[in-house]
Every structure is written in C-alpha cells, then in structure tokens.
Amino acid sequence: MNNNDLTHVENFNYSGEKIFDAAGDFLPINGTDYVELYVGNAKQAAHYYKTAFGFQELAYAGLETGMRDRTSYVLVQDKIRLVLTTPLDPNSEISHHIRMHGDGVKVIALWVDDARSAFNETVARGAKPFLEPEVISDENGEIVRSGIHTYGETLHIFVERKNYKGVPDQ
Question: Which region, left, alpha or beta, applies to residue 142 given φ > 0 means left and ψ of -120 to 50 means alpha?
C-alpha cells in the first residue's frame, strides 16, 4: 500500500480493553487531585474563577501563613481543585516560568493510593524523576507526594491522602 493513500486504512477500535491478558495496571489513578496554575496575579485570578465559574476558596498560603516565596489560593468546585500560584520573588523559578510561558498549568496532581509505587513504576519505565517520595505530616495525618517530569515543563505529582483527615473534599 502506498503510504500517501490512506483510503484503505482500517479503522481500529481504541477501546479501554487490555492489549493482552497479562497487562496489569501498574499505575492505578483514582482521579485528579488538583491542577496548579502559575499566574501573574493569584488574587485576581482567584477572583475571576470565583465570579466567572462559581469556584469557592478552600485554602490560602502566603506571607500571612509563613510562605515567603509565593502566594497560592486553592479553589474548589465539586471534584475540581485549582491551585493558583504567584511568585513573590521576581527572580524565582515561578517568575521565570511565567515570563517564558505566561499564565498556565504547571502541575497536574494525580490522586493515587500509593505515591511511592507510582513514582517507582513510572521511573522504572523511563520517566524523569522530579520529586522523590516525601511524607508531609501535621495534626491531621500525613500525605505522601512524589513526582515526575512530563511534556515540556509540566509536572505530574502523585498524591496519596489515605492517611490524611484534614481539609475536607467539597
């Protein structure tokens, strides 16, 4: 068949079926934990998402909470969580990213049952490590996070919250 003639190409069924019986799900994902956008003005962006799309403010981090290098607003609507982050240092990595790309998605955080396994399995298959598994804990329990580089400068962070009883999902 001539590669320029695509009229005889068979249509393939790209279903959710396994390619072969022995194929296992090496990276079970429960859903999206959050999407983080780097923005020039997080307060203004948060206002926009709240008034235009009906998001509600769930959390805030900034100078008032001891965060010295950035300000972040966490917004929620049903199962969607957005983190809007603005740098406080004009020479930071976040500032550089915004100058290079404008406002946009930096992190896609995936909710998993085992962040350590997600990291190990993806790195074993060739993913470039970004964040070795780390445990973050407070009086509400612990969260395990890890992460890999994906396309461009976007990151995938694996978030395990099974031992955390903090801020409720809304």
Answer: beta
pLDDT in tens, 105-162: 999 999 999 999 999 999 999 999 999 999 999 999 999 999 999 988 999 999 999 9
What is the rounded CA–CA span in Å between residue 124 and residue 137?
27
CA gap 11, 7 in Å, rounded: 10
Q: How far is CA 2 from CA 10, 11, 55, in A?
A: 14, 17, 53
pLDDT tens digits for range 6-53: 566 565 555 666 655 656 788 889 999 999 999 999 999 999 999 999
The torsion angles phi and psi of 13, rounded to 5 degrees, stand at -90, 105
* Count of CB atoms situated within 10 Å of the CB of 39: 24
Record the pTM. Answer: 0.83
CA distance 111 to 160: 6
Residue 63 is classified by DSSP as: G
H or E stretch at 20: none
Spatial separation of the C-alpha atoms in residues 94 and 87, rounded to whole Å: 6
Q: Which value, in Å, is the radius of gyration of the alpha carbons in the chain? A: 20
* DSSP code of residue 14: -
